[in-house]
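Predict structure. Chain length: 554.
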Amino acid sequence: MISKREWLIVGTFVILILALLGVGGFIVFRLASERGLIPLATSPLDDQTPSTSPEAVPSPESERATENVLRVPGTPPITLDPALAQDSGSIEYIRLIYSGLVTFDAELNVVPDIAESWEVSPDGRTYSFHLRQNVRFHDGRQATAQDFKYAIERACDPATGSPTARDYLGDILGVREKLAGEAGEVAGVVVVDDFTLEITLQEPVVYFLAKLTYPTAFLVDRTSLESGESILNGTGPFKWGTSSLERISLLGNKEYYRGAVGLEKLEFILSGDFLPLYEQGQLDYVQVGAADIERVKDPDGPFLDELSLVPGLSTYYIGFNLNISPYDDPDLRRALAYATPKSGLVDLVLGGTVVEAWGILPPGMPGYNPDLAGIPFDPDKATALLEGSQFGGGEGLPPLILASADPGLAQILADSYAEILGINVEVQAMDFSSLLAALGEGEVGMFLLGWGADYVDPQNFLEINFHSVSQGNYTRYSQPEVDSLLEGAREEQDRERRLDLYRQAEEIIVQDVAWIPLFHDLQYILVKPYVQNLVVTPLGPMYSLARVEGFSGN
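Prediction complete.
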């Protein structure tokens, strides 16, 4: 969490803003300054947690001297059920406690996990997975292929209510019938023997293995669930430890099938000003936000040797539900897009810790198009579009409501639209879990949200968010040409042709303004020098590889 800080507005700085950023940057600077929101008080891609003083999170030096403990920032999870998770905060814990058939390595390649090998049939539809025989749940019970069949069918059971099963498992033969309550099992998941699982798809898709890295396909323990015990009996590198309002502790799994985990304990600190906690030695790893970026980059400061930059794979955006008036008017959406001062947000509010977004796909994602024009900041065109809409200008437009779990940034955008277009945008502050639930029910017309990659394939951004029948299509966007392009990309074996199909779809989506892309994430991270082997990827830290060496206190 980034502590709030206000900047003084001085004349020379305002002149510099005008010269470098133009009217859009100046509007953002003035509006944000008036509200005390430069730099932004919270990172928009993080879940929000209460801030407390550093003293609220004690760190006994005797424990640090004698235990191999890694302390990192965290957020309270919304759920720890792999079938229900859809937010990054929950998924961070789930990836540590549970595991699946495949995973990704430090270079984000799909690699074996519980499945040590597999074959694919000549038609590309049937995968035969050969499971490791040394995989045990945390309570000691051996994991088998039958457990995977149970986990997949549980996720697809209508009674479970998974918000992700259709999108991540829907390629499997029989999943849609199971989700609809028309079948008692998933026909395409067959247990050949205790350590051989066969999965058959409705049609071949080249990204199927990547989708299996998502928690919906992870192993859960039937015995624990059916006996009414905790769901937290996983097979992952960490076991559930303890939790409180201040911290969650996970214990390193010494019986982990891929080798004993190096950490005795992984502690997530859930509240506090994280950079001061890092300075005091109470955190060993932290991601730096806009408020502190200049200080940690100071060549004469104490942080530079511990600072690294890791590109993110995320896009923060304004989305619209196209089934709700007035957001179904394309001229209104385009007017808002042309009135969005992205460069001011990136440079002033977020301190250059993010990259301005013109499209849906972030840099580093296959298919990213650096030449995509997008919709530029153009107040005159924005005003003309609004006047040409069915509302005839701002006077005839009903109040707009922008829902967000990040009301600070949302208010800056709302004030910008009032300044440029003369319209009233009300900010509706919601906690993240309530916002996701409302989006799933189609109750939100305009919203501020971020989408982070679950695996490294453009399908994860484009098909899940914009195909007309996707469970994750919060915008209710439906465009037959886009559907056709996305469906063609599912089966296209030629990599360049496949990526070109995604680029074509992305360009149409951007011009239709189902989203207004705002920015892509950059991760500025600090890691203590005594932390060994902590690999931080664009999808997050790989804590199972880390170890704390030689810590003897401050």
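Summary: Residues 11-34 form the longest helix (24 residues).
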